[in-house]
Amino acid sequence: MDEANKTCGEIEEIIDEVEQRFKQIRKFDKLFYPPCDHYYLKYGRNSKNMASGTAFRQRIEKEWLLLENNLPSSIFVKSYEKRIDLMRTVVIGPPHTPYAHGLFFFDVLFPRNYPNCPPRLHYHSYDLDSNPYLNPKGKVSLSLLEYGRSVTNWYCRAQGNWNPHKSNILQVLTAVQTSILSNNLLNPSGGEGLQVSHNSVWLKYKKAFTLTCKGMLYMLMAPPMNFQDFVEGHFRTRAHYILLNYRKQMDDNFMLKLFHELYRAFEQNGTYCKHHPWVVLIGVDLPAEKKTNSKRFVKNVATTFSNLLN
């Protein structure tokens, strides 16, 4: 076997391992210890609460069972046997929003007096301000968590304030997806149609969209612990959809540069993407007015991807 064929075989073997690990990931999983980068790890645990038979432990185990049986396919949770008061979760951005295919990670803390008080969430923002309800410092603004205002969650049919007897972590996580990531800046056409006018709605959509894509780059470079395989497999399987969607939104040189970075990152992550630059290069995705009136942009596309492919 020559060196080229040997290298190709090694790459295929690595790809198979990545995809196999990704397919084996369960929506809800229990690990032994929490990761050292968990935001709430520094909060001292209450040993009495952790003991078998306590009301706190019984409530947490009830939450575990609820998650195991009812999580939607777009939310994944890790819990920890040695720190039952902690969880780490990822929510996948819903389709037809600027957050589509993006990953949103949260660390969860169940306070000592839970469920009399709601759980605490810390958002892993990577210092990106992509959503007004997800602060770059990690604060999550959700009425179910802290403000006491009424909320409606269509997935779990939960309505009203936090109720120690009825509310649960599943309602909180699905509210993040259905209230924060879905309703905010939601556009049925996925951003198409807003582009032409360049109005304030499109600019907000574009900001959320480009920052979500930037977050993908940061996650591939530094995925949260316990979710390394998930991040790698998720972007391996969704790279084509992300690039196709991005090409529809691309309207300036900044977005062109970010497309280049995404393309590079996905290729390095093991997805074959070389056909995407050629489609952009010949202007297939550009509207007619952009082909005729934005010659400078088209020229920059050609220059960028000629350098990229050489």
From TrEMBL:
PANTHER family in the record: (E3-INDEPENDENT) E2 UBIQUITIN-CONJUGATING ENZYME (PTHR46116), UBIQUITIN-CONJUGATING ENZYME E2 24-RELATED (PTHR46116:SF13)
Pfam families: UQ_con (PF00179)
Gene3D superfamilies, per database record: Ubiquitin Conjugating Enzyme (3.10.110.10)
Protein name as annotated: UBC core domain-containing protein
Species the sequence originates in: Datura stramonium (Jimsonweed)
Keyword terms: Transferase, Ubl conjugation pathway
Any coiled-coil regions, as ranges: none
Domain UBC core: residue ranges: 55-218
